[in-house]
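Morning!

As promised:
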Amino acid sequence: MFSVTVRDHMMIAHSFRGDVFGPAQRLHGATYVVDATFSRVELDADNIVVDIGRATEELHAVLGELTYRNLDDEPAFSGMNTSTEALAEVIADRLAEQVHAGAFGDGALELTAIMVTLRESHVASASYERPL
Amino acid sequence: MFSVTVRDHMMIAHSFRGDVFGPAQRLHGATYVVDATFSRVELDADNIVVDIGRATEELHAVLGELTYRNLDDEPAFSGMNTSTEALAEVIADRLAEQVHAGAFGDGALELTAIMVTLRESHVASASYERPL
Amino acid sequence: MFSVTVRDHMMIAHSFRGDVFGPAQRLHGATYVVDATFSRVELDADNIVVDIGRATEELHAVLGELTYRNLDDEPAFSGMNTSTEALAEVIADRLAEQVHAGAFGDGALELTAIMVTLRESHVASASYERPL
Amino acid sequence: MFSVTVRDHMMIAHSFRGDVFGPAQRLHGATYVVDATFSRVELDADNIVVDIGRATEELHAVLGELTYRNLDDEPAFSGMNTSTEALAEVIADRLAEQVHAGAFGDGALELTAIMVTLRESHVASASYERPL
Amino acid sequence: MFSVTVRDHMMIAHSFRGDVFGPAQRLHGATYVVDATFSRVELDADNIVVDIGRATEELHAVLGELTYRNLDDEPAFSGMNTSTEALAEVIADRLAEQVHAGAFGDGALELTAIMVTLRESHVASASYERPL
Amino acid sequence: MFSVTVRDHMMIAHSFRGDVFGPAQRLHGATYVVDATFSRVELDADNIVVDIGRATEELHAVLGELTYRNLDDEPAFSGMNTSTEALAEVIADRLAEQVHAGAFGDGALELTAIMVTLRESHVASASYERPL
């Protein structure tokens, strides 16, 4: 099994609902350093998993719709706790849509899985992995 | 599959028995930077894998029983090489006990696996993963 | 010259005023991983710069007054752009006050400088250094 | 499941063929920080996955045949795009050969898998995992 | 004293002349993760050292003239060992020219120093610092 | 001003005397990831600060006399608290002796300063800087 990982980041504001979140129920924010990992069984005709340049651009485009925003005001997240793990799923699903739409190239249709990891600090992170 | 990872560290002394360990047969020590990863299939009602704050506290409590000690003198490790990989298992098992005892909350009973990674330097680490 | 550095983090929301900030004029947020460095010419009677445990606690206390907040709503920052570099100064000044008030112990009165670095992502950071 | 990871690096020149590579079709180079991860189900009689010292030496030996070279001139890579993911496979396969040849010791014959990750920058990496 | 640091990278091929370089006399390559640090005594009217976005763009432009190249073929480096420390000076000087030319904005004319650090692996780096 | 930094590590046991150290008065241990930084005003005839390969070897030799030991039993440290900052000084002084003895080559006699940083965990480090 082969995989390629690219990294970018986003900086957002949000708040959480639920006693479990303690002081994080207040409006605060986070930098998420985001790793997107693409996997497949065999390399393509160019001997790669996916073009690292294109994967970087696609990840940047997906994060560009989230960064520098207050997620509490985004209709897409209405009534939802935008936890680190939930945001990992959102980003993975949006990347998967782009793979299926051909944005990563025809070779990328052989990708088998995407994993997205969000590092919210030097001591905490969350991941979501899904098939393609 | 979702996961959350929290990080802490411990600083211990120990020695190893066996020719394979070379100079590490002498009493020496290590800082272990410890990552504990908790996994589950679906998020809970709060949209999380596990409360990061509580997971951080539980990891800190488990490491608190090991740090600032000479493991050669600890009855729990009598006659055992406290290798990096063996300590990863000890920590994962103790965290699993706490999950089963309810210390991570009722939602955490849906956790499916724990992985513990100990980084002993910038060039070496070891992990142990187990189901829950 | 000796120095000791301790690390912690905070997660805040804020917005900026000024065309130079582009999309960061919108309400967004950041995780700041904060390094506080304390310097002195000679070590104290215990052979240390400052107690790492106490420095960690004092940094945590200073960050505790900022984390999980929207800085736009904090009276202390009224009318001020809470840029990474400006926050580094705020934290350094608050730590300096605590040093002068004796919170780091009598030995810490020999400290000569504090530097605070805030890492806002894997690709950007800012620092402020001041004498004591 | 237990694993041990050791890290080293290599510094090579190469070029790629194929429009997908854009400016990387020119002769350029890379530092690859290489992580080799060895896995097994149970620890050996010494309570380890594999001797970290020996694994470090074997990884260093494998990388020693690649580093400080122009891979375009190496017969082993004739007509092949030496992408990050393809080099991960080469290194994993050479390590696997050494495991099977007994270079890691008799206990290492119980290893079940090798994963090799090459970090080509602070924002991109690739991995290959194979059974043993 | 305040400072801001931005990070990017470049991937180049080169070789060295001189016995001291051993195997690095062969054509090989490197990824340099590059940190550029800009310093000044007081913050500007926007409460910043320099616009992080603009500094990031300018660093990217300077590295864009070096990356994906064989430095042995670049006229600018004819007869010169392009060591890590020498490249740090080249990049710092080119950034200084851009500051003086106004590319960082008028406020940046108050910058007092630039430091450039090139990390060539996880175990080696070099820096050059100069006044402005 | 130019500088070059090389990294290695050591793993030691020790204990501290003094109430300020709390639980660290017990025998425990640490991994120190050690950065040694060498500075000079102008590059040498080979266009370098110091040969990175030789600096790496010399740092490894100095750490080789400390690693895998209980520092409480070392005559060199009798009656001394081997704090992180004190060990930084020991290592810097031993490297300085080697520079003066010519172990880094004749060009290295132009070095002006050494700084040694010991990272004891992901959240704490200490440094010592001295002229040459």
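The radius of gyration of chain A is 16 Å.

Hope this helps with the figure draft.
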